[in-house]
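Here we describe the complex-level prediction in full. Unlike the single-chain runs in Section 2.1, the two entities below were treated as one system.
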Amino acid sequence: MAYLFKYDSDALMALPKHVDLFDTTLRDGAQTAGISFSVEDKKRIANRLAEFGVHWIEGGWPGASPKDDLFFEQMRERSWGRSKLVAFGSTARPGHAVEKDRGLNRLIGSGADAACIFGKSWDVHVTKALGITLEENLRLVSESVAYLKQHFDTVFFDAEHFFDGFAANERYALQVLEAAAEAGADTLVLCDTNGGSIPFPVFDVVTRVKKHLPDQALGIHAHNDCEMAVANSVAAVRAGVQQVQGTVNGVGERCGNANLMSIIPILQLKVKVDCGVSPEQLRQLSSLSQFVNEMANRLPWQHQPFVGQNAFAHKGGIHVSAIRKQRDLYEHIDPLLVGNEQRVLVSDQAGRSNILSKLQKLEPEAGLADDDPVVAEAVTRIKELEATGYAFEGADASFQLLLRRSMSRFQRHFELVRFRVYDEKRGHHEDPESEATVQVRVGGELKHAAALGNGPVNAMDRALRAALVHAYPGLEAMFLTDFKVRVLTTREATEAAVRVLIESSDGKRKWSTVGVSTDVLEAAYRALNDAIEYKLVMDGVAAPAAENR
Amino acid sequence: MAYLFKYDSDALMALPKHVDLFDTTLRDGAQTAGISFSVEDKKRIANRLAEFGVHWIEGGWPGASPKDDLFFEQMRERSWGRSKLVAFGSTARPGHAVEKDRGLNRLIGSGADAACIFGKSWDVHVTKALGITLEENLRLVSESVAYLKQHFDTVFFDAEHFFDGFAANERYALQVLEAAAEAGADTLVLCDTNGGSIPFPVFDVVTRVKKHLPDQALGIHAHNDCEMAVANSVAAVRAGVQQVQGTVNGVGERCGNANLMSIIPILQLKVKVDCGVSPEQLRQLSSLSQFVNEMANRLPWQHQPFVGQNAFAHKGGIHVSAIRKQRDLYEHIDPLLVGNEQRVLVSDQAGRSNILSKLQKLEPEAGLADDDPVVAEAVTRIKELEATGYAFEGADASFQLLLRRSMSRFQRHFELVRFRVYDEKRGHHEDPESEATVQVRVGGELKHAAALGNGPVNAMDRALRAALVHAYPGLEAMFLTDFKVRVLTTREATEAAVRVLIESSDGKRKWSTVGVSTDVLEAAYRALNDAIEYKLVMDGVAAPAAENR
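The structure predicted for the assembly as a whole is:
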């Protein structure tokens, strides 16, 4: 990727050799609508970030919430490598000596390795929001930083709204930086608090600041309100900042913070600036991203660059045949570098080459060739099913069962005799009642179960597993994690076929299955049936001969 | 926002006055994992894009799938303003005269206003993926463009993998562009097909191409694999391209295409380049984004810049009090410019004004004021319902009924006594059977009907209308035209709440309604109930007094 700057002559002038990573997932990221980390979550994330090798881990705002106080309390004995814990706060309140400021003293008592405080650098914020004079603000910045420097080796100053402030009153914005610098701030962090900036102006502003304070270490703190937080951060590095602040997966208020999951591989693999992340650590990137999603109880962003499930997924048939000729023809980096992998999606646009590569992954020893009849049969079967509305790109488990069938490597574990679903609602304001009965044959034996449910699909799911769990106790551990319904054609409205996509888990693995029918309950049954069969196949449970006469 | 270039002296040199918008949601966007548009969806999206004012609407690839062929067939009689329909394809296959190329002739026969074909511009792709000589590729590009120009006023050439190609073999990449230009291509679109590029190199490469072909119109087609598709597109405009290709909400293969929902407001409001979108059209941006999410049956990206639900959401007391003092202290643009709104999570202000305006539209003579208790009640009710998963964006009829209720201007036409739905499947290969019985009270009279159906929702729809049609013969003319199901939370899988969206028609009008429940059948019933009530209200059918004691 060295070509990236081949056409960018002046790019290497200001580019630093090394950039520090500053993670604020636990502070700014905790502001995200819908995210609320427990103290336990915060500890696990902090330790995981330290393991990954982030330099600075901002843990929270002492005094802002009991949760943050408890977190810092419990983090006092930590055994991290080079990672350092940072406590966040603001410049002292006006009207008293900084030594008396409760906020600052909480930082000092937090047990953190470093402090990061924000101060106003946009004149109108000082006068309108804080309601103090510009001079008073300069004094607060300078004295707050100086006081903290008596207690911390390292103090960071976040210049809030710096880019807006610089545009509105360049001279004052620079005075605020000077005040913090002269008081001993180690790094001045330029914050695009409202997220309204775009890369070229960011580059130019940072360049001007560096000219003004040539020996001062700078940082960037970007927000994603223009979908440019990553680009703005990289532009600032290109202009010479030595610290990048961001969050895992770009979580954060409004549109989020700069996404470290993209910034790290771009800096290390493309811009060739060292973030102190080793190749081994970089291969943990995808799993770090997933871990934080789990902690945040958040659906993964499947299309997320570098670490997302679809980041290296290929659908178009032309692409796939080319990929098999030469990987990097259609991949901007090797997915393994960030611990991700190439995925080949099956779809109506996909040719036999997609399916062949899937079959080869499934049965490497079979040594299948393009012209193998098994491939032809699988392709035909898939096209038939896709014509009726099946889509396998989101249903790997159903697809694998289908391939096993076409390779006659599949044995049914049970056979449906009948299901009945009853759904009743009495009166406009009454809750409905759902009941399902399921009868299946397992090895010649009839099993019959009934269950109530929160809706008919839930009732059917419960009844089906109740009917099977005695024969297959492994199903006890299995549960559904996701359930999607898609109506396929708008032609006949309520007569339209529906596609039900189900994701299941047994705690260790996750797999997804699909069912299609004009009857939403039959579609759900088919997806449930595959989900259970796949679990039994994965567990290597033998199928009773009687099912497969 | 004029300040944006205050520190970016050379930025205005190459900046064009005007940029054309080229939407490929229906072509490249249709490659997105998990998205499969029906022909009906594609038509509705295309018409909505034309309404919004996009210049070029790429509808698909004639010949690639029966779906795309049907789409172009059905789009032959369209009545758009300035928007033009584009058909996508590739340069001719090697080995025969271009006039005989089936792909090119399909484009010519498609009835589109313009053609866009891609060709290889990365030398290794020509030799390895295509397996032909570099000269042969130049001939294919030149002859394909020339042949299409005999049949289309406008032909676009997508230079596939241009940035990688330029880095690998600058001279050849430029030769490909020359070949297309000399053959008459109207715009040469530089494609970052693998999405591996970043803004500064993109700017520099585009600048070099412009120096090489000063009189040639250029375009940019970016992918989001570095989370920089928007930044790369804006960088290219800054370097002088006059066309930007992208998709609504950035849907697209892998990590997606450049997101027009961000690019449009950035260009018009910040970079000050005219995209031909009027202020009125720009205020439709958020609703266009939501509409495409509904069509794609896709969970909205709540943190999406500009148009997302949280894009202008404010937490935290400091922010809120400051916002009250001066909005733009914490907002990079006025959300109303893009049809979004400020959400102050601690107050009830949000949404109030637009609900007032809707109420005023509904009841002009009522002369409602901001402080009218009716408004407060409507706001409260809407917030309650939205908290349970209702979304009225796609369901105007349900929304109007809700407002009528809050103004006590609504009289029920019937009351549900009970519904029962039976669904049974006997054996793995048997079709299921669905039966519904519905009992309603109309003016003190009990009506009871039963119906079989193609699936339980269809059975319920038939039974409900059978029970009502004698009392309300107007329902005879009513039928459902669309039916969508969305699962709202994945937390409890099959226990999750579902939202059913129904579109109805009576031949003259179309209206849509919504229902939410953990029981998919109850959700469907609620949407059906509203659909019928709305039809009766529109027809001015009086409600029997007995229903409204």
